Amino acid sequence: MTTRGTQAADGPQAALPGTPAFPEAARRAVHDPVLRANLRHATHTIRGRRARAVAELADWDRLRAAGKAIKDHTLRHLDRYLVQLEESVTAAGGTVHWAVDAAEACRIVTRLVQATGEREVVKVKSMATQEISLNEALEEAGIAAYETDLAELIVQLGHDRPSHILVPAIHRNRGEIRDLFAREMGRWGRPAPDGLGDDPRELAEAARRHLREKFLRAGVAVSGANFMVAETGTLVVFESEGNGRMCLTLPETLISVVGIEKVVPTFRDLEVFLQTLPRSSTAERMNPYTTMWTGTAGGDGPSAFHLVLLDNGRTDTLADAVGRQALRCIRCSACLNVCPVYERAGGHAYGSVYPGPIGAVLSPQLRGTGSPVDASLPFASTLCGACEEVCPVAIDIPEILVHLRERIVQGGPATREGVRVRIRPARGHAAERAALRAARLLLDHPGALRAGERLLARARRLRPRRLPGPGRAWTDSRDLPEPPEQPFRDWWAQRERQDRTPRRQDQAGTP
């Protein structure tokens, strides 16, 4: 399927500027003791609460399977459901815009805000708008965008970048947030109260007072959406603070920027995700605020509603039979909270608004692997499988990681459902390509493999402690495995012979 319009020259949004490849960024992060302590405390707390919330449902596995089935069905028929969504939104009084990439989406939103005459917008937390760098585009046009989610406000005040899907300021502790509020709030609006402490209630109250004036005077709001219902044209936002409800009801104009993969066919399909998303993200049975809106209604909520449907590399991802399952993602962040790599490296190391395991498979597909950071992301994993185990829509992230690694290492042409595309080989992987070709040659010749196994077993006493050349870095932190006394093939054949011998003797002694 294709969305309307043509691919712009600048293409999907590039990696965040100034971000090195993942290994270098992670190396810096693991040497920051404060960051590691913040991440360890937060991720362990969230994962424990999530586990208890999920355990309350006896049919959790069936809910996961249902969510997976709904998403897979929708992606297979995405063209049909997007057209139905447009018809439903239009019939309800809204206007639908189609954006093929980040640049076009930013142009559409900027033009819509300028048409209102407003110079400020309030924002509901939206990863899609972060993906396309909408705040920066609005700023260039002289429009101020104010984040109203508490964690996003912390990130904005700190001139920082989000590092987690659910808790964007997870890399900050309470003391850092207090200092940030005291130093920066006055530059953005109402200042923090004198003598502000680091108690969470004090910090939340300071943020509430700071944001209240922005809610009351805002004429335009920008949001994302967790789901869009094709059947009715309804959009849904899950949130926990009430800021989303303020943004979605008070302003005269509401502009929602949403990825095309967020559509579901029917209102009834929401039943599954209303159970799985809150438990997987905030470890709650239900979010405190679940806001749904359908078009416009006279005298109730915004008088103008615009929906910007964002592609930005999603149809390219959809063309990959393995990689497309990443589009099932409902942005719960459960995979981040169980990932040992994310816990140590933090979200900034991924160079994307989508960090952690899901970012490692989603960003290289949305943006391509032309930059060092995107080419390194599929390797930012131990392949332990914890992410797949907790995913509420059963995305097999390890499978996609291996698939993307294969594409990056092999380089050259690759075939995706009959379409030949050229993947740029990542730098520094020449040795890996040579090793994989040697392994393929050996595995294609069982006789040579058997001879090599026997030779290795007989030469086990000559095993070196460290590998030479490029292998030295590997053995600097690991013990080289000791070869077995005999190859598995020989051991199995010997076992089979022993099992057959008693049977023959028993048969020989039978009258």
Automatic annotation (TrEMBL):
Transmembrane segments: none
Cited InterPro entries: 4Fe4S_Fe-S-bd, FTHF_cligase-like_sf, Helical_ferredxn, LUD_dom, LutB/LldF, LutB_C, NagB/RpiA_transferase-like
GO BP: lactate metabolic process
Key word Glycosyltransferase present: no
Annotated ranges, domain LUD: 84-296
Domain Lactate utilization protein B C-terminal, chain residue ranges per copy: 404-496
One Pfam family linked to the record: LUD_dom
Residues in 4Fe-4S ferredoxin-type domain copies: 326-395
Gene Ontology MF: a single term: 4 iron, 4 sulfur cluster binding
Region listing for Disordered, in residue ranges: 1-20, 466-511
Alphabetically ordered keywords of this record: 4Fe-4S, Electron transport, Iron, Iron-sulfur, Metal-binding, Repeat, Transport
Biased composition (Basic and acidic residues): 492-511
Record-given protein name: (4Fe-4S)-binding protein
Organism (species): Streptomyces globosus
Lineage: Bacteria, Bacillati, Actinomycetota, Actinomycetes, Kitasatosporales
